[in-house]
From TrEMBL, chain A:
The keyword Lyase does not apply. Residues 3-217, 274-350 form the MnmG N-terminal domain. Pfam families: GIDA (PF01134). GO terms for molecular function: 4 iron, 4 sulfur cluster binding; metal ion binding; oxidoreductase activity. This is Glucose inhibited division protein A. InterPro entries: FAD/NAD-bd_sf, HdrA-like, MnmG_N. Its cofactor is FAD.
UniProtKB/TrEMBL annotation, chain B:
GO terms for molecular function: 2 iron, 2 sulfur cluster binding. PROSITE patterns: 2FE2S_FER_1. InterPro entries: 2Fe2S_fd_BS, FNR_nucleotide-bd, PyrK_electron_transfer, Riboflavin_synthase-like_b-brl. It comes from the Bacteria. This is Dihydroorotate dehydrogenase electron transfer subunit.
Length: 426, 322
């Protein structure tokens, strides 16, 4: 039986584990921390704008599992906030345990608190992954979903230092780039000002520290928009964010809070003193990252070059997904790329042609488009998401943005890919 | 597989050091002038410490005057010193592999001689050191001085510290020969503290005496005295390796002894963790002078005064004249 080893238990890794398992592989998932879904533990925004289309595409392609979880753990459905329509906000405290049970029930072998630090390689093939305790996990095909965030030294050199985010590098140790270990140079994202990396785009406030009025509004409507005092408006801040879909003027002039269990503040960081000047936030404190008044994690410092089937160039048996595979933002993007990588890992082991999604699907187009852009200087400064920015504009202009589930299903059936991820290949 | 180096000082109060300032850090890739994080993690970010410290090294070890409380001649050509130090320093030195530099107060710095700690009394502030008089530095220590300059603590006197500190409720074989009886004491005490069963094979070596009897008296260990380089000794060690389910072997002595112990382990076909004494000529202890640099078989150069290395990797490059 093909043994697929996935490095990184974030959204992309979990998605890859499920699709590789469904295609018939024996799957081992290596996770550095004690939680799955990585930054998904503090995210929560689903189905906004073009993500709705991508979600329904992935479901019709045969991989509904993780979207079923995020839908079932929703606190708010079909809400609007500046620049965004029909969003679902999942409850960040519900999703991880649900995903964990799902993966375990599927018979996926999860190794928690296991940090990959190196590889064993023969010619252009990876034989095994060396863990920090020097034990080795051998496999036939490997999928790297280690992301591109941190560790501490990078967050300091390219940001404002470790802000104590959910990745908890000081406790669990740093992320290592597996593809780089395999001799493939990382690609680095840039900011508008040419510096490397980008800040994560949001922080979470402890809901109990907000005024009763704001809490009620959040619980009821899912969104609260609060005006920033004139003297504190800073438009320049938008440039440093990773989430360009939220880099809108409205987000500089207002504080936008979303209810994901915590109050998600749509800013990479915000000085506590200034934050507390806003009505209702007089007692506010950060829930994630703990030092959200000063800093946030820095991302996009470690992207692997890949083809549109998610196979890493230069290594025979390594695939990648999520942020590791491009300048992608978001859970939906991670799940969509992860699912494809997992499915293709089994194809790769069988020596059959890898699946490449057609460009008349939003998922197929973003995978190919991000790959075309990443080789250009300007493209390195952009982020690719179904939810906004350049790619959502592209979706709208090319007619890829569809919100009718049945139509999406018909489209996928026309390209003969309905339920492809459900096919057991071995 | 790339071999990343691990500095024994990383994460300690003496990190970051001068090597960080000069982009020669043993562990941190940023502080080697590289672009991104790629370190052998020690639970702390050296770069973070460096930047937070204003892009400077932290406080470094200095020479401090210490009093010799007792000087005792042991065996042939050997001396034992009892030195008064602060309780803090004694505590810092109460670790396997700990060492300090000593020299006479009137002598230039190049008389600094590295000395393994035999025992540390942290409730009263004493350390005990035994040495063999061999060259210019130790001969100058022999002069009847009551005061020395001491620099420390240093910790890289052993390779394999991680396995040594981790092993618990296991069977351990401790082999010590000659003057290397001294650093074995802290090793044995550490192993006992972690509820290991210790078999101690001790060899007088050229010192001609078991001078640590008082220090191991009353410890719950099995002691066997034998010439470990003799046929009998080798037979004994192999038997222990074969029959006692040994999880960790400590070899204290010359590199010839280390090579012979590793050889015996391979002959018997067992796979215990290996801890050995660091026998390289240590000169400054700070990774600056380069005097202790060795080249590993993969071409990596390592400063052995600070770098933790695998015992086998250190020994495989040594060439012996039998």
């Amino acid at each position: 039986m093909t043994k697929v080893v996935i490095i990184g238990g974030g959204w992309a890794g979990c998605a890859a584990a499920i699709s590789a398992k469904k295609a018939g592989a024996e799957v081992t998932l290596i996770e550095r921390t004690d939680l799955l879904i990585g930054l998904g533990n503090v995210g929560g925004i689903m189905r906004n704008n073009g993500r709705y289309t991508a979600t329904e595409e992935n479901i019709a392609l045969g991989a509904p599992e993780l979207f079923d979880v995020t839908d079932s753990c929703a606190r708010h459905k079909n809400i609007e906030f500046p620049g965004h329509k029909h969003a679902t906000l999942y409850d960040v405290t519900q999703v991880e345990p649900t995903v964990r049970r799902l993966l375990k029930d599927k018979g996926i072998n999860i190794l928690f608190e296991s940090r990959a630090i190196d590889i064993i390689k023969e010619d252009k093939k990876i034989k095994g992954i060396v863990l920090s305790d020097k034990s080795v996990i051998y496999g036939d095909v490997f999928i790297e979903t280690t992301g591109s965030t941190g560790p501490m030294g990078n967050c300091l050199k390219y940001g404002n230092g470790c802000s104590m985010c959910i990745l908890r590098c000081p406790s669990f140790g740093p992320r290592i780039s597996i593809s780089k270990r395999a001799g493939v140079e990382d690609i680095l994202g840039k900011r508008g000002d040419e510096s490397y990396g980008a800040f994560s785009g949001s922080c979470k406030l402890n809901k109990d520290s907000l005024s009763a009025e704001i809490v009620e509004k959040l619980n009821k409507e899912g969104v609260a928009v609060l005006r920033i005092p004139e003297e504190d408006i800073n438009l320049g801040k938008l440039d440093i964010k990773v989430c360009q879909q939220y880099a809108l003027k409205e987000f500089a002039e207002n504080i936008v809070l979303l209810d994901t269990g915590h109050a998600k503040l749509m800013a990479p960081f915000y000085p506590l003193e200034k934050l507390r000047k806003i009505k209702g936030l007089e007692n506010a404190r950060y829930e994630d990252p703990y030092a959200g008044g000063k800093a946030n994690s820095v991302r996009y410092l470690s992207i692997a070059p890949r083809n549109n089937s998610m196979k890493v160039r230069g290594v025979d048996n390594l695939l990648c997904a999520g942020e590791k595979s491009g300048l992608f933002v978001g859970h939906t993007e991670a799940i969509a790329t992860g699912t494809l990588a997992g499915h293709n890992s089994v194809r790769l082991s069988l020596g059959v042609p890898l699946l490449e999604l057609p460009r008349n699907l939003a998922i197929g187009d973003i995978i190919a488009f991000a790959n075309e852009q990443i080789i250009t200087e300007e493209g390195l400064k952009k982020r690719y998401t179904f939810a906004g920015s350049e790619f959502f504009q592209r979706m709208k202009s090319t007619g890829l943005y569809i919100t009718d589930k049945e139509e999406i299903k018909r489209k996928i059936s026309r390209v003969n890919l309905l339920g492809i991820y459900n096919e057991k290949l071995i | 597989m790339k071999y990343r180096l691990e500095c024994v000082d990383a994460g300690s109060e003496y990190c970051p050091c001068y090597l960080a300032e000069t982009n020669n850090c043993i562990t941190c890739s940023h502080l080697q002038g590289k672009q991104f994080c790629d370190c052998e993690w020690r639970g702390t970010c050296i770069y973070q410490e460096y930047v937070n410290n204003g892009y400077q090294k932290t406080y470094q070890r200095e020479d401090i005057p210490v009093q010799v409380e007792k000087r005792e001649s042991i065996g042939s050509n050997c001396m034992m010193l009892k030195i008064k130090v602060s309780k803090t320093l004694a505590r810092q030195l109460k670790e396997p592999g700990a060492y300090v530099f000593l020299r006479g107060t009137d002598l230039p710095h190049y008389f600094d001689v590295p000395m393994s700690i035999m025992e540390a009394d942290d409730s009263n502030g004493y350390i005990y050191i035994s040495y063999q008089t061999l060259g210019a530095k130790t001969k100058k220590l022999d002069e009847d001085r009551s005061e020395f300059l001491l620099r420390g603590p240093y910790w890289n006197g052993l390779y394999g510290l991680k396995s040594l500190k981790k092993v618990s409720e296991d069977n351990c074989l401790v082999i010590a020969r000659g003057i290397a009886q001294a650093p074995a004491i802290l090793v044995i005490k550490k192993l006992i503290k972690n509820r290991n069963k210790v078999i101690f094979v001790v060899d007088k070596g050229v010192v001609g005496e078991i001078f640590i009897e008082d220090l191991i008296d009353g410890l719950d260990i099995r002691i066997i005295e034998e010439d470990v380089q003799s046929e009998n000794g080798k037979f004994l060690i192999k038997n222990i390796l074969r029959n006692e389910d040994i999880g960790l072997v400590y070899s204290g002595g010359s590199d010839v002894l280390h090579a012979s112990v590793i050889n015996m382990i391979d002959q018997v076909g067992v796979n215990p963790n290996i801890v050995i004494t660091n026998n390289n000529e240590i000169c400054c202890g700070e990774g600056i002078c380069g005097g202790c640099t060795i080249r590993l078989s993969n071409g990596v150069r390592a400063k052995t005064c600070k770098t933790q290395l695998e015992a086998r990797k250190v020994i495989e490059r040594r060439v012996f004249d039998d």
